[in-house]
Design a protein that fits this description.
Layout (H helix, E strand, L loop, with lengths): L4 H7 L5 H7 L11 E6 L15 H10 L7 E6 L9 E6 L6 E7 L5 H12 L13 H5 L1 E5 L5
Parallel strand pairs: 1-2
Antiparallel strand pairs: 1-3, 3-4, 4-5
Length: about 150
């Protein structure tokens, strides 16, 4: 044991820059920046739901919950996206630097795979802009709104 503070400091292992860099959290990249897929679970898609039945919006949410979404995508059930006359609706948002999209005319049995593909493309972007040619057809034809990012 040493009596001098300088000797104690010298005996303490020091970390180099490489170790410090390894310990630092990775910055948000498109693959890690959080993305939310919001699904209106109250949607009836213009039809009556039998007593105790599952609404089409809830069925769409359930189908997406069973899908293989990217790890940085959070699926959220929401009460209403106010697009009731245009089929089931979803919104796709990804933080302050990405564009937000609202899509309609989604069908619980036919659109889940298309949405899974679209959210994967969206999650891989820095700004939320998926090139037109690579977008799934449903997303090209059923965009209700495109909302600019909060930050440039």
């Amino acid at each position: 044991m040493t009596d001098s503070p300088a000797a104690e400091i010298a005996a303490t292992p020091q970390t180099d820059d490489a170790q410090a860099a390894d310990a630092a959290p990775a910055p948000n990249t498109p693959e890690t920046a959080p993305v939310e897929l919001l699904v209106c679970v109250k949607c009836r898609r213009g039809s009556e739901t039998p007593e105790g039945g599952i609404r089409p919006g809830q069925a769409l949410h359930d189908a997406l919950a069973a899908a293989d979404l990217p790890p940085n995508v959070a699926l959220r059930a929401v009460e209403c996206l106010s697009n009731c006359d245009h089929g089931c609706s979803v919104a796709l948002r990804g933080g302050p630097k990405r564009w937000t999209y609202v899509y309609g005319n989604c069908h619980e049995a036919e659109t889940a795979e298309t949405l899974r593909e679209g959210v994967a493309l969206y999650a891989a972007t820095e700004n939320g802009l998926i090139p037109w040619r690579t977008r799934p057809e449903h997303l090209k034809r059923n965009c209700i709104a495109r909302i600019p990012p909060l930050e440039d």
